[in-house]
Design brief:
With 358 residues, this protein is of the alpha/beta class. The protein has helices at residues 2-8, 26-34, 69-72, 90-99, 121-126, 159-163, 183-187, 195-216, 228-240, 247-254, 257-261, 283-293, 329-334, 336-356; strands spanning 37-44, 50-57, 63-67, 106-110, 130-132, 151-153, 166-170, 243-245, 267-274, 298-305, 318-321.
């Protein structure tokens, strides 16, 4: 975009604000936007094998950020091995512990793209919480084991480390932990579950929620967002007192987007595909809503443009498709950089005629 802008207006000042909506890329966007640093560590993947995961520390050195998918994501499990009865969020807990090796006061967690349906029990186990059966033995890994829980032992949990830690979770789904719209019936199938498995997983999560209520006093079963990432949302609320937030709002706040937009003349944004779904918390809409607080024109770019009629009433002033003619998706991806530059050039040439040459 900047190359296209400066080919027409060489003296233009371009302020870069990496953005994301809470899903994949959120950690990188926030680290880039704040001049932070990314760290790598080895954790247990969804099936217990070692994987390399990442977390970030923002430029203030007081805020950590991670995506659970880096440790417990569905992309880490081949399709033939996906089974939410056994996949675990243990690695996400390890990633949280790694971030806490830094003197942070806040932790931001993105919880999209999971391979799991264990209610965040694996995450809690990695942090020292024990889920014990009637014989006093720890249960195994995965959503299939939750039905065995007789009591929850938090004596090994270093609560003092979390008492002064603010945890915010980027969560853009409103599904509850259990029930027809819960984690199991809504998402478990894409993680390898059959209908019968989904029914079993839902019953297991209901039992899990009952034990959480007895242990912590918190009823997480029907909280909006608790079912995100196979119930990880519930686990984070129950054991770490985390707050669930819309992903785009969280990123907007920590990227200090509002401060950077205040003095801008124009706001450029975009994503791979823009259509009617963009209005529901996607990055361009989040950017547009901030820009409209200051009456700034918003121009959006996309590789594919669908039905966008509703977007003009929500802050986006103009939308441009960057692809040139008919072609394949591979062609569009391969040429995205030059196509975005060229389209930006044409838009700014028009702006120059209308705004700057008078």
């Amino acid at each position: 975009m900047e190359l296209g802008i400066k080919s027409v207006l060489p003296l233009a000042q371009c302020i870069h604000v990496p953005m994301a909506d809470g899903g994949e890329g959120t950690m990188q966007a926030l680290v880039d936007a704040t001049g932070g640093k990314i760290y790598k560590t080895i954790v247990k993947g969804p099936l217990g094998n070692d994987v390399e995961a990442e977390y970030g520390i923002l430029g203030d050195n007081e805020t950590g950020v991670l995506e659970m998918s880096s440790a417990s994501g569905i992309h880490l499990v081949t399709r033939d091995l996906r089974n939410p009865l056994i996949t675990s969020t243990y690695g996400t807990g390890q990633l949280i512990k790694a971030a806490l090796n830094h003197p942070i006061k806040k932790l931001l967690i993105g919880i999209g793209g999971s391979a799991t349906n264990d209610g965040g029990a694996g995450m809690a186990q990695a942090l020292g919480i024990k889920f014990l059966d009637v014989a006093g033995n720890e249960i195994g890994s995965g959503g299939g084991e939750l039905i065995k829980i007789d009591r929850i032992d938090t004596t090994g949990f270093l609560l003092s480390r979390y008492e002064n830690l603010t945890i915010e979770v980027a969560c853009d789904v409103t599904n509850t932990l259990t029930g027809e719209n819960g984690a199991s019936y809504t998402f478990a199938h894409q993680k390898g579950a059959t209908e019968e498995m989904a029914k079993q997983l839902d019953a297991n999560l209901e039992h899990y929620a009952d034990k959480i209520k007895i242990s912590t006093g918190k009823d997480v079963s029907m909280v909006a967002g608790a079912g995100a990432a196979g119930g990880l949302g519930a686990g984070l609320m129950a054991f770490l007192d985390a707050k669930l937030s819309k992903g785009i709002e969280l990123v907007t706040k920590y990227a200090e987007l509002e401060e950077k937009i205040k003095n801008a003349d124009f706001v450029f944004t975009g994503e791979g595909s823009i259509d009617h779904q963009t209005q529901y918390g996607k990055t361009p809409m989040g950017v547009a809503q901030v820009a409209k607080k200051y009456n700034k024109p918003v121009i959006a770019f996309a590789g594919k443009v669908g039905d966008v009629s509703a977007l003009y009433d929500h802050g986006i002033d103009a939308i441009f498709c960057i692809t040139n003619g008919a072609g394949t998706l591979d062609d569009a991806l391969a040429n995205a950089t030059i196509n975005l530059e060229n389209t930006t050039t044409q838009v700014v040439r028009l702006m120059k005629i209308k705004c700057f040459d008078k």
